[in-house]
Amino acid sequence: SSEHQAVASATQNCPDLIIADSHLMDGSGVAAVQRICADKQVATVFVTADPASVLAVMPEAVVVQKPLEPEMLSTAVRLALDPQGSASFTDRSRRTLPSDPAQPTS
After folding, report:
1. Torsion angle (degrees, nearest 10) of CA 24, 83, 99, 91
2. 3-class secondary structure, 6
3. Which of 2, 30, 65, 66 could bond to 26 as cystine, CB 3.0-4.6 Å?
């Protein structure tokens, strides 16, 4: 998908949740999310091999590092949908979920 396609689709069908990669075939997933969320708040999870690139632009983003485990994506989705629900995830470093659940967050 391209940045333009992502924004057009979200404009037509306002999502409750966005799961995005930071890099799209044509454009940036981060830029697409910023455009989609410019006028409305949408829960977002980034799934990327480069969490630092997302956090540099969106420090409060919920990020899962690739390759990912299903449990980590599930945790990230819950966090994105209820950001105030867990005090243990309020620190930026804890908002990046490692691909390996046994690996500490960075």
Report:
1. 110
2. helix
3. 2
Determine the 3-state secondary structure of 104 from DSSP: coil
What's the 3-state SS for 9-23? HHHHCCCCEEEECCE
pLDDT tens-digit map of 30-71: 999 999 988 888 999 999 999 999 999 999 899 999 988 888
Token digits for 58? 């969106």
Percent of the chain with pLDDT over 90: 35
- What is the model's pTM? 0.76
Within the chain, where are the H helices?
A: 3-12, 29-36, 51-57, 70-81
Planar angle of CA 25, 27, 29, nearest 5 degrees: 90
- At 76, list the tokens: 């990230």
d(CA 97, CA 103): 9
Could you tell me if 84 and 95 are in contact, meaning their C-beta atoms sit under 8 angstroms apart?
Answer: no
